[in-house]
Design goal:
The structure holds two protein chains of two kinds. Chain A is mostly beta strands. Chain A has an eight-stranded antiparallel beta sheet with strand order 1-8-7-6-5-4-3-2, with no helix packed on it. The C terminus of chain A is likely disordered. In chain B, the strands form six sheets. Chain B has an eight-stranded antiparallel beta sheet, with helices on both faces. In chain B, strands 3-2-1-4-5 form a five-stranded parallel beta sheet. In chain B, strands 6-9-7-8 form a four-stranded antiparallel beta sheet, covered by helices on one side. The chains are: A mainly beta, B alpha+beta.
């Protein structure tokens, strides 16, 4: 399963080599559809896909479960999730449940409180780093579980700032 | 001419200066911080010396260390690039005290232009238009301020003398708003800064940022090299520039160019400088500031004039006169520059750090790349996240715009997030295409990401996410997938 960074639902994607085909022949299942493609993947992560009579170039970068694809001037970020794993059951389970400081800096303002419901891209925290103000926003719809920093605090890069909960609907259904 | 020049900078500008030095047969000396030890500017240089430390303050801003290195390696001049020490009068003075030529204007000019009030007064005295305003030194009464606002013309900006960051600042469209604005600004300022003095300034509606490249030499010549339109800004930083400006008529260009030369002459300016103006919708323009250095966006000027500004800087610094007069400068065609930043435009332009995996830039006639990085480099938290500048030239604006749009579409960077797709979206905006924009353009601009995921992307992602044989087998798998190069045996397919 693959979770695209801007889409709430993970996609079921599987790929297998065509048993009696050339080394480049693959069959890809995408949410119920099946596509046949010739794929050439070079050692540097770049490659070519021939599919439906069209040949295209792509560049890929994989770091453990993070897969990044450049195609046609756009970059797409995916997270690979185990179909049987704990995150797979919940949509959005692969979304960052914790927001960390992307740079070392000072927390200028905290715009939300514990328990607040959030809309996607809602600003949460304003911090200052490298003489620039930056806004840290909610990656998706959810709720603030816990704020773990305070205004005026100097934080290191990677410091935990906010714990989020993206499983709001599930919980509300349970209540 | 100099034999050896030290470049007190890093990244793309250090590489760009190195290129010109080497073409002129001058040895290029790099200095570098610890995180930059394998940087492109170090690898391209003829000699490189370490500035021990990581932060800018410990490295590229260390005047004493840089002068020591220049002396011990026998450099006869220092090029400061832009940023860091480039507009530091103390550094320019320290160079000259050490008998090393500072490539830039005199310490006195740098000092004057570094102080906004002095810069404004100096140039106003020289006849350069400045933003009209009124400075209330002695707690003027409201009636006086009303009269002054009338003279300046509404809308006016009421600013707290001690203010900053928007505190104690109000826009007033008429006398009624002025009264309440003064009241609020005074109250806010008194409580925040313990100072209730205010000043008035004309509020420029729909402002465009248009700057003129100027060049002076040590024998009193000064020319302008036409304008650069720099209104596409985020966080007060330019990201897309073009030349010529779509907003200037030939008459206005002539007026602004003359004002820029007037400024350079008034200062006795030597070397490369930029006179920045703010231009309103009616065509009125006001002096903003003088940048006493080479500007980031200088390539678009070079492309239109077929000049190498770094070479000219070196020649002027070596005491040579400018090799041309104003009438010899005839710019040709249209040029754009896009600044490639490692940042996420969808998350408030948050800088993105990490290792660059692919860095595959478009190439072709009339496409220029000034890059400070290459594939495999690490983008660190220590410095400005600008990776490179992409510039294109075309016979017409339309041609140049099409070329830039193509080049951005073809520019591959993976490993870190960049603003490439965001800039492509700006270039495709109908108002931008018509050339109708001001410095507020990006405030309201939203780039839509791709509407849906193309099948090709999903196929590529599936292929990249495919586990290798060894992974399926066992315990070492996790360590292996997290190594930086999981592609080594990508040709080794798992049998399905």
């Amino acid at each position: 399963m693959l979770q695209h960074s801007s889409q709430p639902e993970p996609l079921s994607v599987s790929i297998e080599k065509v048993a009696d085909g050339s080394p480049h022949d693959f069959r890809v299942a995408l949410d119920g559809r099946t596509l046949d493609a010739e794929i050439e993947l070079a050692a540097d992560g770049s490659g070519w896909i021939r599919m439906g009579g069209k040949v295209v170039r792509f560049f890929g970068n994989r770091r453990s479960d993070d897969v990044q694809v450049w195609y046609g001037g756009q970059v797409y970020d995916f997270k690979k999730i185990d179909a049987n794993g704990p995150n797979a059951a919940k949509a959005g389970g692969a979304m960052m449940p914790e927001l960390i400081a992307p740079m070392p800096g000072t927390i200028l303002r905290i715009l939300v409180a514990d328990g607040d419901s959030l809309s996607a891209h809602q600003p949460l925290i304003i911090m200052e780093s490298m003489k620039m103000e930056m806004t840290i926003s909610a990656p998706a719809v959810g709720r603030v579980k816990e704020i773990t920093c305070s205004e005026g605090e100097l934080v290191e890069m990677g410091a935990l700032l906010v714990r989020l909960d993206h499983t709001v609907e599930d919980e509300e259904a349970d209540e | 001419m100099f034999k050896k020049v030290l470049i007190a900078n890093r990244g793309e500008i250090a590489v760009r200066i190195t290129n010109t030095l080497q073409q002129m047969g001058i040895a290029a000396v790099a200095v570098h911080s610890e995180p930059d030890r394998w940087g492109l500017h170090v690898r391209r240089a003829d000699e490189a010396y370490a500035l021990d430390g990581e932060t800018a303050a410990d490295t590229y801003l260390r005047i004493d260390r840089i002068i020591d290195i220049a002396k011990s390696c026998g450099a006869d001049a220092i090029h400061p690039g832009y940023g860091f020490l480039s507009e530091n009068a103390e550094f320019a003075q320290a160079c000259s005290d050490a008998g090393i030529v500072f490539i830039g204007p005199s310490p006195d000019v740098i000092r004057k232009m570094g102080d906004k009030m002095i810069a404004k007064t100096t140039l106003a005295e020289a006849g350069v238009p400045v933003v009209p305003g009124y400075w209330d030194e002695g707690h003027a009464d409201v009636a006086t301020l009303e009269k002054e606002a009338e003279r300046i013309g509404y809308p006016v900006l009421v600013k707290a003398a001690a203010g900053g960051g928007g505190k104690g600042m109000r826009i007033a469209k008429d006398v009624k708003e002025l009264r309440s604005g003064i009241d609020i600004a005074r109250r806010e300022s008194a409580s925040a800064f313990g100072d209730d003095r205010v000043f008035l300034e004309k509020y420029v509606t729909s402002p465009r940022h248009v700057e003129f490249q100027v060049f002076g030499d040590s024998v009193g010549n000064a020319v302008h090299m036409f304008e650069r339109e720099c209104s596409i800004q985020r966080r007060y930083q330019k990201i897309i520039e073009e030349s010529p400006s779509p907003a200037l008529s030939p008459k206005l260009r002539e007026e602004m160019g003359a004002a820029a030369v007037q400024a350079a002459q008034a200062l006795g300016y030597s070397g490369a400088g930029t006179v920045e103006f703010i231009l309103d919708a009616s065509g009125a323009f006001y002096f903003l500031e003088v940048n006493t250095r080479l500007q980031v966006e200088h390539p678009i000027t070079e492309m239109r004039l077929q000049l190498d500004l770094v070479r000219l800087q070196l020649e002027v610094a070596a005491g040579m006169p400018l090799p041309f007069e104003q009438a010899d400068l005839n710019p040709c065609g249209h040029a754009f520059e896009c600044r490639i930043y490692a940042e996420d435009a969808t998350r408030g332009f948050l800088p993105s750090v990490g290792a660059i995996r692919h860095f595959d830039a478009p190439v072709g006639a009339n496409i220029r790349l000034d890059s400070g990085v290459q594939a495999g480099d690490e983008v660190s938290v220590y410095y400005d996240p600008m990776l490179a500048k992409l510039a294109v030239w075309g016979q017409t604006r339309e041609e140049a715009l099409a070329r830039m749009a193509w080049a951005l579409r073809r520019f591959v960077v993976t490993g870190v997030t960049t603003n490439i797709a965001f800039m492509a979206a700006v270039l495709a905006d109908p108002a931008f295409v018509r050339g109708v924009y001001d410095t507020h353009f990006l405030d309201s601009f939203r780039a839509d990401g791709p509407a849906e995921l193309p099948d090709e992307v999903l196929v590529a992602a599936a292929m990249l996410g495919r586990e290798k044989k060894s992974t399926v087998r066992g315990a070492q798998s996790e360590a292996q997938t997290s190594t930086p190069s999981p592609w080594r045996d990508a040709g080794h397919w798992r049998s399905a």
